[in-house]
Amino acid sequence: MEYIISKYNYWVYIMLMMIGFYAMMGKRNLVKKIVGLNIFQTSIILYFISIAAKKGASIPIVFHGHGHEPVRAFHYVNPLPHVLMLTAIVVMVSTFGVALAFIIRIYRTYGTLEEDEILAQEE
Amino acid sequence: MTEHLSILVVITPLFISFFVFLLSLTKYRYEWHFTVIATCLSFLIALSLLFRVLQTGPFSYRLGGWAPPWGIEYRVDYLSGLMLVTVALVVFITSVYAGKSIRGSGSLTREIIGEEGEVSFFTLYLLLAAGLFGIIMTADLFNLYVFLEITSLSAYALVGTGYKKRAIVAGFNYLILGSIGACLYLLSVGYLYIMTGTLNMADLAQKLPLFYDSRLILVAFALLMAGLSIKMALFPLHAWLPDAHGLAPSIISSILSGCVIEVAAYAMLRAMFTVYTPAFIFEVLPLKEVLSIAAAVAMIGGSTIALAQKDIKRMLACSSVGQMGYIVLGIAIANQTGLTGSLMHFFSHAVIKASLFLAVGAIIYQTRIYDITRLRGLGKKMPVTMTTFTIGALGMIGIPLTTGFVTEWKLAIGALEAGRWPLVPVILLSAMLNAVYFGRVLEIVWFKKDDDQPHGSGETPEPAAVTEAHPLLTIPPLILVSLSIVFGIAAFVPLSIAKKAASMLLGG
Question: Class for domain A2-59+70-121, per CATH?
Fold first, then answer.
């Protein structure tokens, strides 16, 4: 039981990932597929942030300059996954932008955003 | 300056892409010229890096002077030198070809993107090149993810500029599937980080052997393979490739089939051999058997679906699915000869497939015909282009005197050396299937007359009016395909590099 409660971050990220995955596969509207992609990518951000947390740690900003008492790593949250996720968020936003540009072109060409109607028009 | 060449090969296309985009605000239309200059510079830098590796051995470059594992490291060794020169060559020659294919008056892509779209096209093209070089050079797993996404986003957008209406849907499919692949890769990087605390490939290779029995590392490997297999279009996960590569503009198809999927395969090689050493993948996991089945299915399956295609670009795209199987077969054979064949296939497939797509692009530019059965008698009207296509097809099949033969020979000898003789009939069967579907095109083009050609709608010009294409459309593919003959005869040049790279991957 503690296995589930103490690590609930990871259970939630897996559930979010699967919800996003289902939306990408199961929904027929293209905008819903893109929302699913976004949920999928956001769950990975949640995973990375969860691995950065430490018990009783504070934000990773050093207030004193050099020469004062040495910096101990267990006082501060691990900043590297946060930094990696800043980059990943930028990548996700760019992907979202390209996907929306595709949707605008698809709507102008086909007049619909439902996948089955688009495939029917291609027959 | 020479010590910064490793980063300059990535930054040159990146900065010039920004510059090209800003140039669009003025009235000067020099974007193609700057693209050619940027890719030429990258090619020369790539050659100099390869020569330096061959003389003094592998070396690395630290970004910002930060020592790894805290900083990002770029590593140039035999494998990345070979890949870098191959990709830089294909990107440079294709950008020369783009002078007529995109900017010419008969260009189909120009009808879609318009004159002001050319700037965005070349900007994205340079970003694609910068991303490809970055993936090859980097020795840091997260940096590889960043460049993988730069490459992929440019590729999605460029696929969407294809001529047929379906190209946009193909680009959208590619976006969804490619983003899933990249996210799985990112997740595996996260799993490796939480276990070892480092992202540098060499550092991970030292720290991972302690954890080989950990389930987390096993799942990280599985996610890595799944994510990169989607990007590489390995057989069950290849569904986006026939649409995306078949409907994109021809120069984009040649870069995608020749470079992008190969660089994803290169990333998989790096992950399997440099991060997880051969001790893990061949002894802890039964990957020799699993990958040989996957490779055999990919080779036969890819060639079989190519048999069923009526559209010539889709046929070439499905052929790429089969050729990626050759690379995985070399990995599965797991001795030096097999892996040498696999690395030689990187060079061979890039050069030959790019020249095939460029030749098909010249055909489409002149005749607007996509259907194979309507290409009757084209050998007499477009002799140079069809000669290029013929030599490229012979290279794909694996006729001696081409690099394709060298790869298949090395793979077969490697399979026999490893005692896995059932793989040799698989290679031969795949070569025969290649011969069937390429032979069909060659027969229609050279040996059929065009008297009874069905006249479709008015978009096809009269058969008598088809002439040979402009030199800018015929000479680049001819250069590429003659390189495959030159290195098919003088095969010791790329083979020596590939052999050193293979022994470094297997031994290190």
Answer: mainly alpha
> In the structure encoding, which two tokens stand for residue B393, read together?
């097809």
Nearest Cα to Cα of residue B272 among B323, B238, B234: B234
Domain encompassing residue B408: 305-508
Measured CA to CA in angstroms, residue B189 lies from B56, B179, B224, B234, B381 at distances of 32, 15, 8, 21, 53
Q: How far apart are CA B53 and CA B73, in angstroms?
A: 16
Q: What is the pLDDT of residues B181-232, one digit of tens each?
A: 999 999 999 999 999 989 999 899 999 988 888 899 999 999 999 999 999 9
Q: What are the b/e assignments for B3-25, b being 16+ CB within 10 Å? A: eebbbbbbebbbebbeebbebbe
Task: Give yes or no for a contact between B66 and B231, defined as CB atoms under 8 angstroms apart.
Answer: no
B380, part of any domain: yes
Q: Is the pLDDT of residue B457 over 50?
A: no
Domain assignment present for residue B439? The answer is yes
**Tokens 């929302």 sit on residue:** A35
Q: Which residues of B touch A21 (CB under 8 A)?
A: 180
Query: What residue type is assigned to position B279 of the chain?
Result: A
The reply to whether B123 falls in a domain is: no
Q: Is B335 exposed, middle or buried (0-12, 13-18, 19+ CB in 10 A)?
A: middle
- The reply to whether B433 falls in a domain is yes
Provide the number of structural domains found in chain B.
1
B5 to chain A, closest Cα gap in Å: 25
Distance CA B95, CA B55 (A): 30
Q: Using CA atoms, how far apart are residues A70 and B276, in angstroms rounded to an integer?
A: 36
Residue A3: how many other CB atoms lie within 10 Å: 7
Hey, which residues 156-215 in chain B have their CB within 8 Å of chain A? 156-157, 160, 165-166, 168-169, 171-172, 175-176, 179-180, 182-183, 186-187, 190, 193-194
Using CB atoms, pick whichever of B146, B160, B182 lies closest to residue A105: B160
Mean pLDDT of B2-31: 88
From chain B, pick out residues whose CB is under 8 angstroms from the CB of A109. 165, 168
Task: Give me the average pLDDT of each 10-residue run along chain A (123 residues).
Answer: 83 95 94 96 94 87 74 85 95 96 94 89 79
A58 strand-pairing partners: A76
Task: Answer for the pair B377, B314: CB distance below 8 angstroms, yes or no.
Answer: no
Give the closest-approach CA distance of A33 to chain B in angstroms. 8
Query: Which residues of chain B lie closer than 8 angstroms to A106, CB-CB?
Result: 168-169, 172
